[in-house]
Amino acid sequence: MTWTSIPPRGCETMKHVLAAALLAAVAPAWAAHEGPASLDAALAQGKREHKPVLVDFQAVWCYSCYFMASHVLNGKEWDDLSKKVVFYEADADKPADQAYMKKWTVHFLPTYVAIGPDGEELGRILAERPRDTFYPEINGILSGDAKLSKLKADAAKGSMAAVADVLDTYNARYAGTEGMAWFDTLPPMVRNVSDKDKRVAFAKQRLLLLQAKDKKDDAGIRDASTKLLAGDIGCDRPYVLDDLLGASESLAADARKTLLAPQKASYDQFVTTQVFTDSPACADQRSSVLSGADLDAAIGDTAGEQAILRKGVESSRSRLHGDLKSDRNAADNLRVYLVRAKAGDELDTLEKQLIAAYPDDYVYNYRYGRRLVESGKAAEGLPYLETAAKKAYGANRFSVATYRVKALRALHRDDDAKKLVAQTVAADGKAFPEQTKKLQDTLKS
């Protein structure tokens, strides 16, 4: 996603499950940055050295993280940035780092949170960015210009730029209700002229969308997302469209088609001009492709649905030049496009190639084994899941164990399934109570 505050698909629905709900193996295979041993240690070092701490929340299953690691977090700009900050890679599957995700309301991966030496958040960036966008943004945050307390003071004095920055901050924190509550505290003379500023008006509309999502108010989501989509929202378009798609599922088929059909022309133009170009303005190709395919499916354009998926397939293969190791983001995008297109034979071949290309990760053995189990091939899928289990840790152990249990039960090995659940819970159950309950429930279904 391009975050200016609508959630990245980098990590959420079948697309989101594919991108985000699968869990990781060892520390991310792409992680090349050494740093403090824990986030607590990083914050202590930042305070001691009077440096800001830049926290990169990521995981091995996060395709957007692959993009950033391969295309952005390297080179001279990265070297220069690294000298200014204490850098910490937070693993979304580790309990200690998960605790900070909850504390700082980090909902999506990757998220980059900058914390000042005094412990106050300086700002954050959500989802992947092109290199020429990321570094100006992060350098602006680190300059101190985005410090929330200063921005709020400037906003109260009438600075529309500061009002927009504060609203964007609440958007980035996914705090729609809190953001609008802050806006209501501004002096009337500021509030009354705010809608004349396009950036402020847009930021308020995004907060209204978040509020509606918090309330699970489908009508409110449809209203807010439709208004946003009527404007020039750049790389946020796939995420807002996805909200509209989700909130329209309860409508009658004809009513839904009438609501969604007007989005087709603007979305096709967006994909053509900002995604499938030699120099894409929007880094998150996967979200753009999947939202486009979902729009086509919803309005009954089967040919359009397949066309955008095949375009994604062709684009990914072109970027890879036959080498799956050359660009993991493109390799994983290719996998997801083939899943979405139900291209079974191509997908079987690719998934085995991904397992060979990334042997140190649990994730591709898990995904392939899971797909085999889901398609009724438990005996074939179980060995892949057992291989994945040897590499899994933390939260992802439960995902792997869940499908191992399903495979074992399908093979009428109920005693082995019960033993596996007991072993997994004994090892990690206290740290992951929600995952523990879900795993135990697999013995009941």
Automatic annotation (TrEMBL):
Please give a single GO biological process term from the UniProt record: cell redox homeostasis
Signal peptide, first to last residue: 1-31
Pfam families for the chain = Thioredoxin_7
GO terms, molecular function:
protein-disulfide reductase activity
Query: Does the keyword Transcription belong to this entry?
Result: no
Thioredoxin domain spans which residues? 21-143
What keywords is this UniProt entry annotated with? Signal
Please report the name of this protein according to its UniProt entry: Thioredoxin domain-containing protein
Source species: Luteibacter pinisoli
